[in-house]
Write a structure and sequence with these properties.
Blueprint (H helix, E strand, L loop, with lengths): L1 H35 L3 H9 L2 H5 L4 H14 L3 H18 L9 H4 L11 H18 L4 E8 L2 E8 L2 H28 L10 H14 L2 H20 L11 H6 L4 H4 L1 H8 L4 H21 L4 H5 L17 E7 L5 E9 L1 H4 L5 H10 L19 H10 L1 E9 L8 E7 L2 E7 L2 E3 L1 H43 L6 H22 L13 E7 L4 E9 L5 E10 L6 E7 L2
Parallel strand pairs: 3-12
Antiparallel strand pairs: 1-2, 3-9, 4-5, 6-7, 6-10, 8-9, 10-11
Helix pairs in contact: 1-2, 1-20, 2-4, 4-5, 5-7, 7-8, 7-9, 8-9, 9-10, 10-14, 17-18, 19-20
Length: 563
């Protein structure tokens, strides 16, 4: 009876862990739907009233990430900055978490562990902080929080020219912090074809330094655009959005230092349309800066970047910047996997007897895609073979497939005529990056979770064997009852174990699947801006009116579109 009670307590714990996994899925899908539809107020309410986040402090970082982005989407940039700063502080603290905090993952699933954030998600914290400050540098006012008569109230305060300039400098400071984070990440992941640098940091960084406009800042912007071109080949060849041959690129990445850049380009990179679009944009920036600031040596400066001067031309200094967040990150879900039991059971005392019991009584046969104990009177050798071949199922995280196979074109209308068309290039294919991160994660999760799962099943088999022995009687006259009790007990345990091993599908689920950026020049006038997706089914998105005048030298447009 004591053994039975212990088994039920264990099963109860597993069901509790499984309910947590279900809770995060429910709130995630609701948030994604509301953000896609642009209903940020409802998304904020869903997040703040979520039972899952109230009861799971292990997912505090995820809560802050989602909340900061929702405030950003609402246009409450100052509040978004506050929440993201808390998220960054928490992320740094969690790197030093004690090992005791991780012990729960041995008997539960990874959803019960602290959520540390994927590396690309942590980089996105810096992206949004930089962008928030950059947006406030163009704003007329911002929202501040005050306590009046014991209650929190929000007020709009007007921003002076000095305030806006300060916000621009804060954006630059955030870029420096972002750069430090990426340098540390690059050092940790040297030699691996994984996310360790961020093109968004180079391009958005270039825009911000250009906006500040001092000689030193302009030199930094120039260097950032050059760095982006190098990074496009050096690291972003690993993503299908930019390289049709990405699988070979990832597979042979370790060989690249001995091959040299020219061989890597020739043998491992097949440019996609998205790479051509981004490369042309960056080459235009580099050529323009080189001719302007390296008048005597500009030809030598651009030589490493293969700029075709018959196609790429210099352009006027930009006065319009567009930052486009496209759609939503592909969903992370659980995919079934299988792991063998034989090795774990062979460690148990009386492993041979357990092998016969598991095969004969519990009916564990390969491949156990479902547990359907039927019992089979097998000899020891056959039973041992069945058990060594048998496998139990669990989940590993996987990212939905997505493609960025469409161009997005900005149409600038004046009255009833298009006066300018510009491709908005993909700067960061976050869907690709997320997909690679999950593949990398699953590779080391499989043996860890599989071994943990096998241990749980071994415990469940031993417990069922104990029940069987206790009930069958000395003469075996209760064989039928004992068999059925053992089978029912193992089925209940195995289902609980399977539920407890649902994949950890936590993710920052409301970030876009891609970042696209562009800057360009418009003379004074009144314009209407439209985005056009050149997909199989063309779609358009109205950005709205834009008035360009001498009173405001530069304009920053930020929008999210769901094509």
């Amino acid at each position: 009876m004591v053994k039975l009670l212990k088994s039920f307590y264990f099963l109860g714990f597993l069901v509790l862990v499984a309910s947590c996994a279900t809770g995060t899925k429910e709130v995630k899908y609701k948030l994604r739907s509301q953000v896609i539809s642009g209903d940020y107020s409802k998304a904020l309410s869903t997040l703040e009233t979520s039972k899952y986040f109230k009861e799971n402090q292990q997912s505090r970082l995820l809560f802050l990430m989602e909340k900061g982005l929702i405030y950003h989407g609402m246009g409450r940039f100052a509040k978004s900055i506050e929440v993201f700063e808390e998220a960054k502080t928490l992320a740094r603290k969690q790197y030093t978490v004690r090992i005791s905090k991780k012990l729960t993952t041995y008997i539960g699933n990874d959803s019960s562990d602290i959520y540390y954030g994927e590396k690309y998600e942590l980089s996105m914290l810096y992206f949004y902080q930089s962008l928030n400050h950059y947006l406030l540098s163009f704003a007329q006012d911002k929202e501040i929080e005050k306590v009046v008569d014991g209650k929190q109230v929000f007020q709009r305060v007007e921003l002076s020219d000095k305030d806006r300039r300060d916000e621009l400098f804060k954006a630059r400071a955030e870029l420096l912090a972002w750069d430090s984070f990426l340098k540390e990440l690059g050092s940790e992941r040297a030699g691996e074809s994984v996310f360790k640098n961020d093109l968004a940091a180079k391009v958005l960084g270039g825009f911000i330094h250009e906006a500040i406009g001092t000689r030193d800042d302009l030199q930094i912007a120039y260097q950032l655009y050059k760095d982006a071109l190098i990074l496009l080949v050096k690291n972003y060849g690993a993503y299908k959005t930019f390289n049709s041959n990405f699988e070979s690129y990832v597979k042979d990445f370790e060989k690249f230092p001995s091959l040299g850049v020219l061989k890597v380009k020739k043998n491992y990179i097949t440019e996609t349309d998205r790479q051509v679009e981004l490369k042309e944009f960056l080459q235009t920036k580099v050529l323009t800066f080189a001719k302007k600031y390296r008048k005597r040596s500009w030809k030598q400066e651009i030589r490493p970047f293969d700029i075709d001067l018959s196609k790429i031309k210099t352009k006027k200094s930009s006065n319009i910047t567009l930052v486009l967040q496209e759609s939503i990150i592909p969903d992370k879900f659980g995919e079934k996997q299988y792991y063998g039991l034989g090795k774990e059971l062979s460690k148990s005392p009386g492993g041979a007897i357990l092998a016969i019991f598991a095969a004969d009584v519990l009916g564990l046969f390969p491949p156990p895609k479902s547990y359907n104990p039927a019992g089979a009177h097998l000899g020891y050798n056959v039973a041992k073979l069945a058990l060594s071949e048998a496998a139990v199922q669990f989940e590993l995280p996987k990212i939905e497939k997505s493609n960025l196979d469409n161009s997005i074109v900005l149409e600038v209308w004046k009255k009833n005529k298009i006066v300018l068309e510009k491709v908005v290039p993909v700067v960061n294919p976050l869907g690709d990056i997320a997909e690679q991160a999950v593949v990398e994660q699953s590779a080391w999760l499989y043996p860890k979770i599989g071994a943990r799962l096998a241990t749980k099943h071994a415990v469940a088999i031993v417990a069922a064997f104990g029940t069987y022995q206790a009930l069958k009687g000395d003469k075996g006259d209760n064989e039928f009852l004992a068999k059925n009790a053992a089978i029912l007990q193992y089925i209940a345990s195995s289902k609980g174990i399977e539920a407890s091993e649902q994949a950890d599908v936590r993710q920052w689920s409301t970030i876009p699947k891609a970042l696209r950026m562009l800057d360009f020049y418009l003379p004074n006038g009144s314009y209407r801006l439209v985005l056009r997706s050149n997909a199989k089914v063309p779609k358009t998105h109205q950005i709205g009116q834009l008035i360009v005048s001498g009173q405001q030298k530069n304009h920053l447009i930020q929008t999210r579109v769901n094509f």
